[in-house]
Amino acid sequence: MGREAYITGIGMSEVGVRLSRSPLKLTLDAIKEAIADAGLTLDQIDGVSTYPGKMQIFLGFSPVGVDEVIEVLWLKTRWHTGAAEATAQLGAIADAASAVKAGLARHVICFRTVYEAAAMARPEEYPPLQRTGGLSGNSQWTTPFGAYSAACWTAQYAMRHVKRYGMTREQLAQVALNDHANAALNPRALVKEPLTLDKYMASRMIASPLCLYDCDRFTDASTVVIVSAGDALDEVKSVPVRIAASAGSVERYSWDQAEWASAYPTGRDLWRNTDYGPKDVDTVQLYDGFAFQPITWLEGLGFCEAGEGHRFIEGGMRIARDGQLPMNTGGGQLGWGRLHGFGFAYEAVVQLRGEGGERQIPGDPKVAVATSGGGPMAAALLLARD
User: Fold this and answer.
1) Which residues form the Thiolase C-terminal domain (predicted)?
2) What is the pTM of this model?
């Protein structure tokens, strides 16, 4: 176990919309809960990792950096990282796993804090994304073509499935219906009741074929995962979950839209790093900033063939909590809230520990996949309870 990496603690702040509590305090709330969950003390933390780090030009999207956490908690770290130059959100956890495997740290706090709803309500405190007379960064490759939102380019991939593979809105709806049903059983989720197909079909369109219920909503929250070295497990009091494998990829924004999103190469690569395979997985927690994205992950990870994901989820039975492949059991981002990827690692640990309460899947789950992103960038974790 010495050269393995484990998730030993999970924590989450209040999840809400337009919260008054500051993003740093939400982050500290989640850290406190994760530390207690692992049975550690702050003196034992020697690493911190986040994605994408504090973004001064877009504080609602990412308002807290690694340096603030280290400073306010008086941490004595040997290793830390936090920047947008990573595969995707869960890449921060994969980086922490690499660090503890290399002996650079023993216990690493990994966090993702979002404050987009509150920032929109208080622009004087959290100014919106600043424009400087021109376009720069990734937006220069998308905005001139009308892709002002990720919904626009995600919809293009989804429409390809409509035109080439015959995906219907009723099939796509199963992602949102499943998320809402599971969120209704999750006391920390924003959504409190199931969604009906009639209500879904009647909602306004955002970018065809995506409707209102296919899109996550801005949320204020912080999620924390503690990654520990295998030879430090004697210091931990929780049930550890091993990071059995990880993978990630980034598609160049400056090229024309790729034929297949990054979920596909990332899903393929995940299995190259482990003896596990799709048939061994008990539950999947798949990124769903938009409802079409879990379909790409199901295909990319090999649970079905490319172009068959909408048929795999048709009717919703296969991905239900008591189905063949329970998916997004905490409600995903469509039901729980836009936790920006980290909520999927959190929920995977909850399920593998058997701590899901009303939403706990049956049996004795031992293997889970958690993903983030999936468009121009993607990251995936394979988690196992040994």
Assistant:
1) 267-380
2) 0.96
